Amino acid sequence: EPRYADVARGMYQSGDYITPRLFGEPWFEKPPLYYWLAASSFHLGIGEFTARFPSALFALLFLGVWYWFAQRHYGESAARWSCLILATSLGWIGFARAAAMDMLLTTTLSASLAFFLTWLYETPPNRPAWALYAFYAALALATLAKGPLAVALAGLVVVACIIHRREWA
């Protein structure tokens, strides 16, 4: 946590949002999405709250995406209860408070899969094109959050869905 926050602080203070640096040396261990968001939140002041703000924001954002997806596919009651259960689970609360990339990956990867499934669940003439574009955009953000792992995980899920539904086209 302190290392990631320090890289973001260095970005904010230097104004260099291209090259992440740790102790003044280039540090390319993680993709830049968290650093960009944390450095942007440091405009409100440098501290624990602003370093952890991106994770908390993405945890709330995911609850909104999940509510939308669950309500669309499973009904209002399922959406409400599943969001309540998720929002009050200890793991969710813990990761939402961490200055790390995990919540950013969770939100963006899950949102991309929710958009893909929204596209896949519709019958072919009624498939919403926007859902497929949203899938790609969210997957791009997931890649900026944690790297190629996001594409690999999404690819496994997409292939499994295609095989299960036998939709080869």
Could you please describe the fold and organization of this structure?
This protein is mostly helical. The protein has helices spanning 2-14, 33-41, 48-74, 76-87, 90-96, 102-121, 129-146, 149-165; strands at 21-22, 25-26. Strands 1-2 form a two-stranded antiparallel sheet. A hairpin with a 2-residue loop joins strand 1 and strand 2 (25-26). Helix 1 (2-14) crosses helix 2 and helix 6 (102-121) runs parallel beside helix 8. The longest helix is centred in the middle third of the chain and has 27 residues, at 48-74. The chain is globular, with a radius of gyration of 18 Å.
Task: Write a brief caption for the model.
This protein is an all-alpha fold. It has 8 helices and 2 strands.
